Predict the structure.
Amino acid sequence: MKNNQPLAQQQPPADALIIGAGFAGLGTAIRLQQQGIRNITILERSDDVGGTWRDNQYPGAACDIPSNLYSFSFAQNPNWSRSFSGSREILEYIHHLVNHFNLRQYIRFNQNVSNLAWDQDKGLWQATTTDGDVFSGRTTVMAQGPLSNPGWPGIVGIEDFEGKKLHSAAWDHDYDLKGKRIAVIGTGASAIQIVPELAKCADKLTVFQRTPPWIMPRPDFTTPDWNKTLFRKAPVSQTAVRKALYLAHESMALAVIWNSPLTRFAERLGRWHLRKQVPDRWLRRQLTPDYRMGCKRILVSNDYYPALQKPNTKLITWPIDRISENGIRTVEGIEHQFDCIVFATGFEVSNAGTPFPITGIGGRSLNEEWKRGAQAYKSINVSGYPNLFFTFGPNSGPGHNSALVYMESQMDYIVRSIRTIQSLKLKALDVRQSAQDDHNRSIQSRLAKTNWNSGCQSWYLTEDGFNATMYPGFATQYAKQMADLELEDYRLLAEEAASETV
Amino acid sequence: MAKIDLDNMLEKIKNTQWSLSDVDWDAPGAELITPEQWPKLKAFMADLMWIEHVGARAFAAMAKKAPDDTLRQIYTYFHAEEQRHANAEMALMKRWGMLEDGELPEPNNNLRLVIEWLDRFADDQPVYVLGTVVPMLEIALDGALCKFLLDTVDDPVCHQAFELINGDEARHLGVGFSVMEMQGHGKTYIELIRMTAQLMDPRLILGIASYFPLLNKMRDNIVEMGLPEEKLYEAMRKFEKIGGRTGDGRRNPWFQIIKHHGRFVVDRKKRFYHAPIDALVKVADVIPKKAFPAVPSWVKEITYHPTA
């Protein structure tokens, strides 16, 4: 939609235009606010905050990282009810952040950005929404989430199914699952949480698996009251626990990211967990991964394997031929019939492209540039797209530690950059192509030695096998990478020198 | 047969799927089975169904060991397709009144031994051992048995089902022989040394000890059903002909072994082979059912119901 259409409204420019009101967008707003930057606009496509945790409210939804680590270090919550909190409690925490830091004033709800373009003359990013409104910002933060749109599998006949279709990332809470014949397609992180819940209420539950995941025991427990009191009265004790959890997860990098003796040890632990919970040899064989641990996301669960062995539950590993009106046809020639199919098939991954068109200097299109795999400088800036910052940009994904730890490094980098733009009165801060290329050469050569690039197919890789997703190192290394704003890697364009870069 | 492009083959496999509900199992024609045929056919179909089913399990083992992802996917499909054949054959048995509701046909003792071996050791075998034995079983037993069936049974539903089954089997054999040639493409000497090492693996020796008598047992069954055993031998010679059509195929040491073994099987005069193997068949026959451990759970996955 063009900007000059009658319905379009032009808003005054913000110092920081943030797209998305999930953890990253809200966290960035908090950090900016703490630095005295308050001219912030947050565009949220939905009518509520929370991003991933607002959308993923399927039965059993929970986080795979302990809550004391999956929360902001600057806003710790002493009241987590469990070691691994459920999605509702995490959403409550996000609501608490919004209220506590008074963020609602910045948020424009129901504003779905459909286009983002750099106006070189004005030195502004212009975000157009699907309603035709235009919001501008001197800087823009992409906090729309790397995994925010439900991904549907490319199975033939998916539109023919006449029963109910549910997606884990867009759950219909009005649909009553009790006594239904239910199929679950997918055995990833969402599926292994949904299956135990559905097994409790379904008449018949059938789980369709293509590749078995590695599943580790989940040290989940209810937080005792004395623990909450201790954290409230002596916050330093919670910081100490957080640090310990951080270091414990850091050590897991040695097993997860690189192929080491610890990888073998972790695989043995995974197989022990399976053997302990699944006595039947054939079922165990079906559930045993045949790829190196760490190549795909490692899952944690204590109740998935037992749920699969309930009398009303069945695991199907035959390839799916097609979906029909009444159910799912598999290659062993049988049509499995259902009232409802649950697609626990994850998200659309934009590791080769952008979620909406982004136009940079001279009309260049980021979608085009990222077609063969996304690339950025330190995961956060892209040359030719000044004053634009990515949270969870290319090669920032953690495989072993809390995403929020990585996010905090990104947020602090963004705040430092925006303060620099303001204090140096810059019109544009644009990373140099050479710096971006150097960074990517180093990242890709490090990635070549990781488990993610060891040969299995995963959403971490593009169709061509290019890894634009993961960061090949410890969270501590990533924090070090993000600790300094190295201005020599950027082209700086001063406000008064309108046409020339320095 | 030219060497096949496995990626194209995988696409073709995905695009030519069928399911049990594509066949009308209640259509007229079941009455064409004569009362004389019925008991023989029942035993025959049970054997055929079990051979398909153990073939399925062998493909499952090959999928685990496949050298690349395309072949792994192909074998995963073949595993399911062989299961589909077993399911379809059971549906025919049900149609002909050979099965009670929920009944599973009894496997003979030689098949029980093969099932036991597959369940315990097949996943540990090098892919090329099974990759050579399975085409032999498919071409010989499947081929000969299916031919016999279609020659003697007039039921049009049986012909319809086997047209679908044979379409799959043609692809299984195409891939099977192509993979045998891939294995033969290399340094024969090194492969020979490697094979010798593999042959000394006691798990493989146990496999051989269940495979050899199975062939003789099937020969005996065929004779009992009135099929000239020469038909089985013709099918086995086809293995030698197709498998040995190229230099690469002939260089595959496993092909050579299976081929020479096939020559023994088809020649009853080779007493030094047949006497001990026939003795093993007799021994297997007298093993009491109770002596076998419980059947593995994959055996219970077969069904004659087109829907679940």
Observations:
- Chain B touches chain A through 28 residues (CB under 8 Å).
- Chain B has one domain: 35-301.
- DSSP finds twelve helices and no strands in chain B.
- The mean pLDDT of chain B is 85.
